[in-house]
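Subject: Sanity check before I submit

Could someone independently write out the structure tokens for this chain? I want to compare against mine line by line before I put it in a report. The sequence has 68 residues.
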Amino acid sequence: MEEWLKRIKCSDYVGTFREHNMDGVALSGLYRMGSDMRFLHETLRTEFGIAVMGHRLRLIEELNKLFG
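---
Independent answer below. Compare away.
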């Protein structure tokens, strides 16, 4: 998870994802729950503290590459 976040230029969130016990399996589950993009944006913002829109968009695009 840490290496992936670094590779997609979101290393600021390594600690946050670690605190939430997010590994690849959990990330896949989050992605599947996020069929409504508003839900996914809101979850990333509120649960993970990712306030910067560009960071959320980058994460979602990279999730699409992994799981889409």
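---
OP: Matches mine. For the report I'm noting this point. Residues 53-67 form the longest helix (15 residues).
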